[in-house]
Structures are given as structure tokens and as C-alpha cells.
Amino acid sequence: MNQAIRRTWLAVAGVFILLVGSLTYVQFIHAGALEDNPWNSRQLYDQYGSARGSILVNGSEIAQSVPSDDSFGYKREYSQTDEYAALTGYFSMVYGSTGLESALGEELSGKSDSQFYDRIAQIFSNKETHGASVELTIDPKLQKKATELMSGHKGSIVAMNPKTGEIKAMVSAPSYDPNQLSSHDSKSVIQSYSELNQDQDKPLYNRAVSGDLYSPGSTFKIMDAVAALESGKYNKDSELDNPQNLPLPGTDTTLPNYVNGQCASRSKADIEWALEQSCNTPFAQIAMDLGEDKIAKTAKNFGYGQDLSVPLKVTPSNFPSGMSKSELALSSIGQYDVKSTPMQVAMMSSAIANDGVQMKPNMVKTVRSNSLSTLYDFSAEKLRESTSPDVAHQVRDWMVNDVDNGIASGAQVDGTKVAGKTGTAETGTDGNNQAWFTGFAPADDPELAVAIVYEDVDAVTGAQLTSPGAKQLFEAVLNQ
After folding, report:
1. Which residues make Cβ contacts (< 8 Å) with residue 2, sequence separation at least 6?
2. Which pTM value belongs to this model?
3. How many CB atoms lie within 10 A of CB 38?
């Protein structure tokens, strides 16, 4: 009898332990997975039934949660979508979130660790949960001007304060309307996404920080110039051969010099003049002389190959490795397998502008909770020392000469010294290239550094868009 009671007691105890263990596993260990399960309709309604915080530029909402006439309670709404879609991204009940909606999702939804006490207070006060608001560093006038410059084109513009790292403008073109993806009508959302995803112009890409990346073309010659000076083998007076065609080692082909400037007028060139006219062959010779390791190290010192978030995740730019001398020659002029984001090119110019110090780019100015307490305030943060002040100053002077006397003259601003460098990257499509400008102004006390790239334009159109576009951006800031 006692044996039967003992067995029954053990069985009951075992079941009890099993139930407690299962409950503990479900409530604590497996809770996150259950919340994220796409079949969890309660979690879906909870996520869309609360008010996310707003994303603001200069106090104006560019993304906000508005009451909806359905069981979800709120719907995400976006304004000025041509200007800001690449930044905000979308918040979709079908496709999740992208852009700042994703990068700052915890803060916007009110679920970040720093908002714990706000959540407790909202529970005890029986108030509706609200997320934190995010104010961006974007200058609305500059963002509007950059959007206008990109209208009808494919490409990107990034503008930042080189002294602080504050991102003042970021545009990716073409844009799209995230309201089409934030709708609670799943059928229309799926249709809109399908059309956007199949669009050959790829409007869902933020070309400024991700996407397919670009060949930086002759803007990469800034890296060659830095490497040359750092090596000690070259200085401002060094002269190099400037042939119109440079035989590429181990091949039957030659590298042609740039044909749209005055490169053909000199058989010898110093670095300043070669940069001014964007001559290819002197920089290819510098790279082959210094070797892959030195050029790669210089590129790394300016951010190539390194992870970054602004807080949008930036795809690392790439300088290839294991190259032959002929491949290195092509890489030295920003071709072959060199790939860059406009963000990276803007950071490169910013480091030159800021005495060789590269500041961490960031587009978030302030994050405030629903109770108006400050969760985050922007502060300038040094990212790395890319090069010495002496080298940065010499390259800056060469870039000023490029605008004063060279092929970047379209960026000239009356009464202000501008530093700049153009670039043209061949894309394999006859007659069409990627056209670049990067630089900063005022050269002696920089307020703005920019990177501009237009896709699929011929040489004449590229020259008409890039440097003159930079001039307008500089003027928009300097004339305020």
C-alpha cells in the first residue's frame, strides 16, 4: 500500500515538475522566439496597435504614427517621401522594417533598455505606450537642394560636417513612397512591393550607404596622393612620366591617359598638375611603385573594408587584394574591383578637410522619450587618424588647385576657396559612366564635405551635373 502511494506521489511530483519546467521555458527562455513568430497574431497586433515615436527633421515630422480605422490602432505615415524615404525606410506589417525604422526600432517602439522606467510608468498610469522620438542632424534646406539636383537621375549625394561627423544631407535616387508599404491592406502592400522590387532602377536601395556600390573613379587618386606623400618617396616637387598610354605589365594592353583634360600637353607632370587634370598614368605608376600593401593600408586608414553604422548600416567599401601589377594600376584610378559607397567618399574628403582626422558620421541628433527625457544627444566622436596634418594640408592644397585651375572648376564659389576632385568610372556601357565629385568648403575652415555620384551619364552630362551641383550645395550652406 505504502509502495503504491509512493509511486503515485512520485508520478504527481514528476508531472508537477514537468509543468513548472514547461511554463518556465515558455515564459522566459522561449518567450522571445514566440514573440517573433510570424503566426503570433497577438504580438502583431501589439506591435501595430501602439504609437511609435516620430522621426523629425528640424522639428517637422517625416514619419509618424497616426490613428487607423481598423483593429491595429495605428498606421505609419510618411511625408516628403522623395526627400526622406531612403533615410526613414518603411515599417510594414508584411515586410518588416528598413532604414531608420529598423536601425532605431527599439527606441521608436519604446522597447529599448533606456526606456525601461518609462514603460513601468506607463503601466502604472494606465497610459498608452508611446515610443521615443528621433530628431535627425539633416539640414532640410540642404536635403531639398540635394533632392532637386538628383531629380530625374540615378545616383546619390552625401553631405556632412567634416569637423563633427554630422550628416547634413543624404539622398538616394530614384526614391519611392513608403506609405505604399505601411498600409494595413496586405494585398496592396504585396503588389506595391513586387513592383518596387522588380523595378530595374532599384528605388528600394539606399545608394548612399548600400546597394551595388560604385567604382569611385578618379576620386580614388586622392588616396594615391596621400600614399605617395606618406611613403617619403614623393613630395610636392616630384615629377613623373606622363605617357598617353602606359603598358600594363604582363598584358598586351595599355592604360590610356585621361582624354578630356590637358594631359596630352605634357610628357612629365608633378602630382599637383596630374591631380588637376586627372591624368591616369602618373598615378598608376605611383601605385605600382609603392605596391598593393601601401595603397591598401592608406585606403583602410580612410575606412575601406570596415563596418560602420550611422546608424543606418553602411556596406563596407572594398579595395581588392592579391592583384597583379596591371590590376593594381587599374585600381589606382578607382576601377577594376574597387567599390565605394558615397558615404565612404564623403568620409575620405572629410578626413582631408579635418587635418587628417576622420570623425564618426552620424545622422541622429537627439532621441527623446515620451516623457521628454533625453535618451541620446549627439556628440562629435573621433573615428580614426587617417593621415598626418601635413599630408592632409598638402592634399587639400592640391584639391583647391583642382577647383581653381583644373577640371573641377565648375565647383568654384565666389569669395570662397573650394577643394575638390572629380571622377569618371567606366561601367561597361558604351558612352555612359558613373560621374563623381567630392570635396569641401571653405577649404581653410571647412563647414561642408560632399560626395556626389550620377549613374549612366556621358562625359559631358557628368561634367555639367557634378561640380556645378557641388557649387550649389556649398552655396546653400555658406549663404545661410
Report:
1. none
2. 0.89
3. 8
